[in-house]
Design goal:
Elements lengths: L2 H14 L10 H7 L14 H27 L4 H4 L8 H24 L18 H29 L4 H21 L15 H8 L19 E5 L13 E6 L10 E5 L6 E8 L2 E5 L7 E7 L7 H6 L1 E9 L2
Antiparallel strand pairs: 1-2, 2-5, 3-4, 3-6, 4-5, 6-7
Helix pairs in contact: 2-5, 3-5, 3-6, 3-8, 5-7, 6-7, 6-8
Bound molecules: 2-acetamido-2-deoxy-beta-D-glucopyranose.
Length: 327
């Protein structure tokens, strides 16, 4: 065999034994992230369930990386974002690393889909703008809490169908947890408000993450798009209230609530959902916040108070969910 053919054959063999990356990561991203795509054996064959979960993960990682990249570009002359804190580190420095790590997560999820001959998920083209560091820290805590909740759900779902992939999803959750701790600490909140993070359903994750984009600029996933629940108080803020809020007010499309007994279903930490009565008049709603919630909770409008899991509450969700910063 001529040597050029040998080289060709050896390249093919090498390629088939590595992760098939649809997009190459730049050396800058790899350096900023602290590493690139996992090296070694390619991921195992995914089940249909694994594929749909990884497509949702792709959708979420796309929005997260575009969100952090956008913020890096847009807040680059905001002193609160760029100046060095007492610990010698600026928010900009950490977010540069966060954005790069989200880029590596996205590439890793896409490589897994590609090596299963499944299409990757396109980016949403329009991310909602962030205009201040305070708004950034508030929204970054929420987007990261959504991502953590979603990856817990994805991990639980693939644990039975694709057990060998669980190691890769769990090693993403812990990094997201570190990101969230930094955003909270930068907003003068304790970094570790609760002993458990809050799992959400895949449908809830899809709907929550859509609040960061213009949904029509996104590809659609085969998951239900629920009516929006907009929390109007407590107002969005980076710093948690000194004591947990006693009530929330919200707006909702009046068409989705007519003539029903209404509740807000609350999901927080590893607890079964809890319910408080909701009153909605002309699309303006109010409900009390149950005592005992901490950290970030998720609230959804529903017409029942008996569903005991986030999945059964998801099936009974009339609008929402929305994230509520409790402490
Ligand atoms: C950044 O700025 C662009 C241009 O104004 C805007 O379209 C985008 O939504 C902004 N992104 C973020 C995350 O602020």
């Amino acid at each position: 065999m001529p040597s050029s053919t040998l080289i060709f054959v050896s390249i093919i063999v090498q390629l088939s034994n590595t992760w098939a990356a649809p997009a190459t990561l730049s050396s800058t991203i790899i350096t900023q992230a602290g590493g690139g795509l996992p090296q070694g054996a390619p991921p195992t064959t995914l089940s249909a369930n694994g594929i749909s979960n990884f497509q949702l993960a792709n959708f979420i990682e796309n929005i997260e990386s575009k969100f952090f990249e956008g913020v890096l570009a847009n807040l680059s002359s905001d002193p609160a974002f760029t100046s060095t804190a007492d610990n010698g580190i600026s928010i900009q420095q950490v977010v540069t690393k966060v954005a790069a790590q989200e880029e590596v997560h996205k590439a890793t999820v896409e490589a897994t889909l590609t090596s299963n001959n499944v299409a990757t998920i396109d980016d949403c083209t329009s991310i909602l703008p962030i205009t201040s560091t305070d708004e950034f820290l508030a929204r970054a805590n929420i987007i990261t809490s959504i991502s953590i909740g979603a990856i817990i759900a994805i991990t639980a779902s693939v644990a039975s169908t694709d057990p060998t992939i669980v190691g890769s999803t769990t090693s993403i959750i812990t990094v997201e947890g570190r990101h969230d701790a930094f955003f909270r600490l930068s907003a003068s909140d304790v970094p570790n408000p609760t002993p458990f993070d809050t799992a959400i359903s895949t449908t809830w994750a899809y709907n929550l993450i859509l609040s960061f984009v213009v949904p029509s600029s996104c590809p659609t996933l085969p998951l239900t798009v629920l009516p929006v629940l907009t929390v109007t108080s407590p107002a969005l803020s980076a710093t948690a209230p000194a004591t947990p809020p006693l009530t929330i007010t919200f707006t909702v499309d009046p068409k989705v609530v007519k003539g029903l007994r209404l509740f807000i279903g609350w999901v927080n930490q590893a607890n079964a959902p809890v319910y408080t009565t909701a009153v909605v008049v002309n699309g303006n709603g109010r409900a009390s916040v149950p005592s005992g919630l901490q950290g970030t909770a998720f609230a959804a409008l529903t017409n029942q108070n008996t569903a005991t899991t986030v999945d059964t509450l998801t099936t009974a969700t009339l609008a929402g969910p929305a994230a509520v910063l409790i402490s």
